[in-house]
Amino acid sequence: MIDSHGTRKAQDCDSDMLTAPALLLLIQAIASGSVTGTLRDATTNEPLGGAQVVVVDLHRITVTGADGRYRLDRVPAGTHRLLARRIGYAPRTLEALVPPDGLIEITVVLRAEPIILGAIDGAYHADESSSPDPHVDSAALRRHPLLAEPDAFQALSGGVVAVQPEAPAGLHVRGGAADQVTYLLDGFPVFSPYHSGESFSAWNPDALAEIELSPASETWDALSGVVSAESRTPGRQHHALAGFSTTQMRLTLDGPVGSGGAGYLWSQRSGFPGFPVPQHESTYLRGEVGDQLGKFEAPLAGGRLRLLGYGSTNELDTDGPAGTAIRNTFDWQSTTFGGEWSKALPSATLRARAWVAGGAANAAWHYDSASTILASRRRDGTSG
Question: Do 294 and 311 belong to one domain?
Fold first, then answer.
């Protein structure tokens, strides 16, 4: 009986020990409060919505509303660390003394601190162009898988290089305007080297050896890139390339001149986007484009002389005033003439270069009769 009584007492003692933690948790649950308040901008005092307020030691998180207000209920009484954070602001940590069975109001101000992000195109190295194919030779131009016809500018497009954005006006690099791109043909500047509708460049692909896009340099204040092309070197035998499609016809000739090492390259291309639609139809928007290139090379005074001439024409017109043969027109032209003499020295290259380049754009729109005309003209030029 004594043993039985003793055992019974031990069981009673164990029962008391098991209920103690439960009582402690119950007391803590009863002795809890709430934390509430507002998050504001330290400069403007505007409420900050969408910010996080975290009770760090409890891993409790809430998000402020549009009015910047937040609330955390059933927070055990005592001292807790609060962390307030929002994108674009420096995070802030503070201590909060939560009363038992009560409410504490805490207004937190955050200081704006923009986050410095890496460049979107950070995968590119400093010596790389922003184009997927910054350098394209003549062979790659002809086997480009995305081009129905070889085109110098479209072969450079992709990534941050656009040829036909919503309002096409040429080649756009990194979102820059078309006139923020410089075009060089054999080192000589060319104005407006594209045809109407920007459907293809005004450089005959059969006459090009390679084309390259160089990204903007930090020293260039108004350029987004430079497109430079090199024309083919005249061969030692006469050679001809010809092409014909529904959009263009092109012919390129090259070969030697005499036996002294001189040579020539000549290229002619004509485009007819509307072929074979009748182009004299009154409702038809007619377009004509064309480009020419001529180059002559010869040895001179121990060096090499190179002369180049280039020109392109573009015209769009549509029916003018009713009952007249007048048509509304928009056209632009580009011409470049340049010469260069170069001589290779043991430690450098001696070079002398001169050029004249120009471009012109004209528009004439007739209303009701030939006496009412809206016309504009623009001319650009450079020499060096």
Answer: yes
d(CA 242, CA 123): 41
Low-confidence ranges of the chain (pLDDT < 50): 1-18, 120-130, 167
Residue at 186 is within a domain? yes
pLDDT in tens, 309-358: 999 998 888 777 776 777 788 888 999 999 999 998 988 889 999 999 99
Residues of the domain holding 8 = 1-29
Q: Report which DSSP code applies to 140.
A: H
Long-range pairs for 47-55: beta carbons < 8 A, 24 or more residues apart: 48/86, 48/89, 48/110, 50/86, 51/84, 51/85, 51/86, 51/89, 51/110, 52/83, 52/84, 52/85, 52/86, 53/82, 53/83, 53/84, 53/108, 54/82, 54/83, 54/84, 54/85, 55/80, 55/81, 55/82
Number of structural domains found in the chain: 3
Closest CA to 81 of 101, 57, 59: 57
pLDDT, one tens digit per residue, over 238-264 is: 999 998 877 788 999 999 998 889 999
Side chain identity, residue 134: P
| 252, 153: one domain | yes
Same domain assignment for residues 64 and 168:
no
Do 46 and 14 share a domain, yes or no? Answer: no
User: How do 248-257 and 327-344 pair as beta strands?
Assistant: unpaired
Is residue 112, in this structure, part of any structural domain at all?
Answer: yes
> Residue 18 belongs to what H/E stretch?
helix 2-30
Q: Has residue 128 been placed in a domain?
A: no
Residues facing 84 on adjacent strands: 53, 92
40 shares a domain with 20: no
